[in-house]
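# nightly structure sweep
# worker-07 picked up a monomer target from the shared queue
# config: single-sequence mode, recycle default, output format = structure tokens
# input follows
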Amino acid sequence: MSYLKAAAGKMARKIEWHAAQKPIVINKRLVFERPLNGKIQLLDCQVPVQFRALSAEDQVSCVSKEYIDDIIDLIKHKNILVKGFVHEKDVCQLEVTCREEEIVALIPPFCSANRAAFIYNCYTHPDYRGYNLYPAALSWLLSCIRVQGFKRAFLRTHPRNTSSIKGAVKAGFNLRGAIYHCSFFGFNPRPVTVKRRN
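# output follows
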């Protein structure tokens, strides 16, 4: 009986949280694409950085305990975690998925072809921003996935994230379009409106 009470309490809190949300929220995300044909130029950055695609064991060992479940989930879904190190200090990170069903869920109208990669959760440590790390990490990652036979790469970003947009353009990405997500009282359905650029 106590289990049912706890479940009912949890459901009541969830309903209360959703009721407190704005009725309708529309979020826009820009989608960038980079074809992977031809040679990919590796970009330099102003700090001595070493990029590594981490193995499953490395991912678990280098992550703090609070994020361990996220890393185990990454490994389970066979996503790749790339980190940049300056003097063995973790300064930037990118995650990439090559699973078609996951990419189609994230940017549905842009994924007509297979052999695509989607780059997400890009992060640069605040002390190392402005050193060209993000475009350098992107170019390194693109050269790696191109060798594995991938034909194109996607990423998406918020329109106000100008540093991310500049870094993506520096790494050869072109704006492909925008996806609009609508949430109704905190519930997030799939994208409802899409604008494409050819």
